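pls read this protein.

:::
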Amino acid sequence: MPLRPLPQPRGELSAAVIESLTRSPGSVVPAAPELDPYGEDLQLALHTCYELHYQGFAGIDENWEWDPDLLRLRRDLENQFRAALHADVAGGDDVDEELDRLLEPTSDADGVAGFLAERGTPDQLREYFVHRSIYHHIEADPYAWVIPRLRGQAKASLVAVEFDEFGGGRGERVHAQLFADLLSGADLDPRYLHYLDVVPVPMLALVDMMSLFGLHRGLRGALVGHFATAEITSSPASRRLAELARTLLPHPACAHFYTEHVEADAVHEQVMRRDVIAGLLAGESDRARSIVFGIQATNLLEDRFAEHVLRCWNENRGSLREPISALAAPA
């Protein structure tokens, strides 16, 4: 499958980064200005740097991945982003308390799924799919970076969860492929990061956080905390989304992606808590604060995403950068 082109800029910095990548590695790279750490320009520039560690972009020299000047720029942007995340979460070192909080029941009326269940339309569910495509196209990939940074039971158990995420050895069951099938079933384009240019910053920030945690060995605790949060909250959310997909969109692939997660992630929840987190803390008790940070940062950015979507829908406008009516898959 061909690589996607470079994204459309969202400000002076992202424009300069994108322009740099069209030249040869070693060319001049912009310095990092002080920007809104949650803003479109910084997050797209960071996302563009991170994508070089995933699939990359069409026509861009692969040697940009380790260009020292680009890495310095990425470091400076990461420092701004990390500082904002630390400032906006409570912190602490009580991992069990944070995990227990994730299991507290929420009202069926809460959040994006609650809105969709009460008065959502098929197009609003399709909007939600477009947002999440940026996440689910790399759903389990950042977690693979933490495998060589773990030992013993924590490593073995995380690999077991990843094996399921990657389809248990079957390409057609890789979760990223199941989401691509969902997009096709919803009359959307299934290609990798096809909708990057229309997805607003809240989802970019969430995905950039995953890459940040995955790429830094010193943030292995935060990555495990994020992964655990995703697995613990996934099963009940997936059950609701499967029901919504059956109601609002007829193609079975739209519900299948979520039904696949209901039982699997209920098991993963226990494995992440009992074996991965406990195993990591048994060998590195000083990782507790990092794990808590990963949990809290995930919740912060998920809440910011939900707030954006709900604000738009409550104002009777679309939540994407382009109308969903313009985003149908080509015939």
Summary: The chain has 13 helices and no strands. The radius of gyration is 19 Å.
